[in-house]
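Project standup — Tuesday

K.O.: blocked on the structure for the chain from last sprint. Re-posting the sequence here as requested.
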Amino acid sequence: MSPAARSSRARARLTLKEPPAKVGAKPGGTITQLNLQFNPSTLELRKTTEWRRTPSRMAAESALPEFVGSGPRELSLEVFLDATATHDNSVEKAVEKLMKACVPTPKSLSRKKPASPWVRFQWGTSRTTSFDGVMSSLSVSYTLFDVDGRPLRATCSLSIEEASVGPAGQNPTSGARTARSTHTLVAGDSLALLAWQEYGDATAWRAIADANGIDDPMALVPGTELVVPALRDAGDEEEW
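H.V.: unblocked you, prediction finished:
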């Protein structure tokens, strides 16, 4: 591969943003950004669902499961840091940036609502692995040192858990009838399909269109993040 092709390759980065001032709000301004030296070789994405079964003595095999809700996405990756070519303190500076994601920000402390920064991993056009979250775990292994003890190489293992965007007092994963949630459009999505998945009623797509200011439901752009309102927030269900 030529140097020009290598330099044009999309580089992964981690962005730390000020946490929202209140539940349901968007994150604030950028605190710091870490451009990764090396793109990850592996990304592990996890998401859980919760089901409830009511035992029945009359069931031939087992009772039908009832969907309760879905958990947040969790992204795990390793960040490799290396300063053997420069022998500077860039490794420790990068680790310090990652450590900032694990402690409350000064602004949140001043509001007396301690909260750590929101973190977003971005890599080119990737959508499923790019979301606002909080650092749920971080471990750093220093594997090479300079003659004065300065770390020259490190591997950082971290996990980012998707952050809630629902309003206060509600669980955004408990269903769109009782809470707000968000949905990132992918190719093939339609408002009717989304309404069916969220409400069990494809004709309720107008609620999503109104909440996002969509005039043409056929002109949906993949990658757009839509707010999915609770039906009671959007209006009376009988109007649809």
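K.O.: great, moving the ticket to review. The CA atoms of residues 138 and 158 lie 4 Å apart. The two ends are 57 Å apart (CA to CA).
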